[in-house]
Amino acid sequence: MKKRTIAGLIAVVTIVAVVIFAGCIEKNQVDIDQVRKYADPITENILLGMNGNNYSKYSEHFDQTMKNAMPEAVFYETNTLIKSKIGDYVSKQFWKVESKDQYTIVYYKARFTEEPEDVIVKVVFQEIMEEMEVSGLWLDSPKLREK
């Protein structure tokens, strides 16, 4: 009788744990296809804006905080430095997506003309007034890390 009670208790605890765990996964799961529908073209626009030294195209989907952090004069200065190290953007490949609080973080492995290694492009999105806007942008590669 005791063995049956313990077995039953273990079964109930296991089922409860699975349900709780499944609920946690459900909340943190991101629909990658849905994210890529907006993230891929916005990221492409940003990278092409860099290529063309076009601030309007580059910042078109930035939220106000990003526009304040990267005003036009800072863009030209930063873009010149980036291009001097890794050249022009060539292509990108989706790598992964993460979700943290109200942010969706999308990573790409990009190719640039003067960087033999992947350039990791990290774009942070946030929904603001039913529109997905860029709240953060980082590029990382061996050449960009050189002093």
Describe this structure in words.
The protein has 147 residues and is α+β, with helices and mostly antiparallel strands. It is 52% helix and 31% strand. The chain has a four-stranded antiparallel sheet. 15% of the residues are buried. Mean pLDDT is 86; it is low at 16-27.
The CA-CA distance between the termini, in Å, is 72 Å
Number of strands: 4
C-alpha Rg (nearest Å): 22 Å
| Silhouette | globular
Helix-and-strand structural type: alpha+beta
Beta-strand share of residues: 25-35%
Q: Helix tally? A: 6
Keywords:
147 residues; alpha+beta; four-stranded antiparallel beta sheet; globular
List the helices and strands and how they pair.
Layout: H1 2-28, H2 32-51, H3 55-59, H4 64-69, H5 72-86, E1 89-100, E2 103-112, E3 115-128, E4 131-140, H6 142-145
Antiparallel strand pairs: 1-2, 2-3, 3-4
Summarize the entry for a quick read.
The protein has 147 residues and is α+β, with helices and mostly antiparallel strands.
